[in-house]
Amino acid sequence: MLENQVDEEENWNLHTKKMKFSKEEFKAMGSLFKKRFTNISKTVVTNRIWLKSAKSSSCHVLISFPPNSSYETIHTLLDKILKAGLIVFIKEHKISNSIGFYITASYERFLQGAEELELKKLIKQKYGGGIKEFIFAEQEFYENIENEDLFLTTQEKQSIIYEILCQIKCDHSVEELILGKKKVPNGRKLIFWCQKHKIIHHIMPIHDQEELKDLRKNWVISFLKNQPLDKICKYFGIKLSLYFAWLGFYTKSLLIPAVLGLAMWLTTGQDEKIDSILFLILCSFNLIWSICFNDLWNQKCAEYSYKWGTLDMKDDLLQEPRPMFKGEYKLNKVNNKLEPHYSDFKRALFRYLVTLPSLVAVIIMTVVIMLKFFELQSLFEYATSNGIFPELFGLTNFIPKMVYANVISFLNSVYKKMCHWLNDKENYREQTTHENHLIIKIVIVSCII
Predict the structure, then answer these.
(1) By the 8 A CB rule, do 332 and 339 touch?
(2) DSSP string covering 34-65, please?
């Protein structure tokens, strides 16, 4: 069903079962778009413009397309998303000459996605209580199942939609897809392939302004109060909430050694023998404190993990491969699914013959550039002191430093792109492994720069 709403911008609400395009209808829609896009400037749309133009209460994820994307490509992706059981609102942006998909789903589809993601939910007390992975067929046993807003948080809904989008694959046994004049490889996850080839501009979660205002009031500008970790978890997810939980616990734990260190600083300086004893006591205390801190945090982390349902995580072999993982499709004997496989020998070969020499070359080149700029600095200082260069109120000696700062900034951006490229070529299966190796590469380069 394609509904034309009279507003500042035209919205089309597309429902899964009733949405069918004929060639004539599609041409009519294309001509309508062309009329609307005539004489519109081609400025780049920002995330802020897109997100503010959406109704966050009804939509959860935004897919934006580059300006002047072909209607055939948009229609093909739309058809695939609708077949996945999602609800799509199409919206055009006048200024940028581009189109966005505002995506949500029915409550039933959300529950099906919750089962696929194996979200852990509370069981009703009359059925024994506790936490259990959600099962769609047994939904009546779960707490708050009758209320969609109480049962699923905004972050969970966005994760479900994102996971559904990630699972859309190209199947050549059904049809061959050609998007943006490029053929989609068989078995490839469509959304990420489109992102890689610039067919899709962005995939973004849509903020709920009311919840953001509440977090800003009770968390960001609220001092000397405990962090609302449950609210942070519900809105931003478990990873960020665990990070802020650790940050708060670490800050509070530092109060004891800080007070002890301040007391020592105020009392030292009178007797060398007493100072030596106090320093020994402080060092011993810091050693004991660090051990206790680590053990206490492990207990606190386990408490949060159980509370938020992440205490028992899947083994890496049971996790889905990351979306951009490439390889020959074979049967995974662990989960009995057809998945891409990549040789560890090829990965090791690339790592030791390409990645390692590249990082070493970058380090050597950076050190050489640094030493050359030191020589240039000495040359400028010599030239200004002997009257060869004018001092210009002392600014001349700063020229090498300013040039060096710009060169380092440029090299830093180049090195980061190189790290991303090398990491993509190493082709790790799990997302966490991919991110860990990327962090190692970036840290090595950043420490030298």
Answers:
(1) yes
(2) HHHHTT---PPPPHHHHHHTS-TTT--EEEE-
pLDDT at residue 245 above 90? Answer: yes
DSSP characters for 68-120?
T--HHHHHHHHHHHHHTT-EEEEEEETTTTEEEEEEE--HHHHHHHHHHHT-E
310-346 tens-digit pLDDT = 765 554 445 667 777 787 877 767 666 677 788 889 9
Q: DSSP 3-state assignment of 2? A: coil
Q: Which long-range contacts (CB under 8 A, 24 or more apart) does 278-284 make?
A: none
CB count, 10 Å around CB of 161?
25
pLDDT tens for 5-55 read 334 334 434 333 333 344 444 444 444 434 433 333 333 334 444 444 444
Tokens representing 38 are 């005539």
| Alpha carbons 334 and 341: distance in angstroms, whole number | 13
pLDDT in tens, 149-206: 889 988 889 989 998 998 888 876 667 777 777 788 777 788 888 888 888 888 888 8
Q: What percentage of the chain's residues is helix, strand, coil (to nearest 5)?
A: 55, 10, 30
Best CA proximity match to 226, nearest among 249, 243, 199, 203: 249
Q: Return the structure tokens found at 102.
A: 């505002």
Q: Which tokens sit at 214? A: 């509440």
- Alpha-carbon span 46 to 63, nearest angstrom: 13
Cα separation, 433 vs 316, whole angstroms = 10
Q: Which of 156, 154, 162, 160 is nearest to 202 (CA)?
A: 162
Q: Distance from first CA to last CA of the chain, Å, rounded?
A: 56
Strand intervals (E) in 292-413: 328-332, 337-341
Q: Can you give the pTM of this predicted structure?
A: 0.65
Phi-psi region of 365 (alpha: psi -120 to 50; beta: other; left: phi over 0): alpha
b/e code 19-44 from CB counts within 10 Å (16+ = b): beeeeeeeeebeeebeeebeeeeeee
Amino acid sitting at position 41: S
**CA 303 vs CA 66, 130, 143: distances in Å:** 45, 14, 21
Residue type, 285: F
Q: Is the dihedral of CA 179, 183, 187, 189 positive or negative?
A: negative
| Whether the Cβ atoms of residue 204 and residue 61 lie closer than 8 Å to each other | yes
Q: Name the one residue in this structure whose structure tokens are 């997100």.
A: 51
pLDDT at 442 over 70: yes
Q: 161: which residues sit within 8 A by CB, 6+ positions away?
A: 60, 61, 86, 103, 104, 105, 113
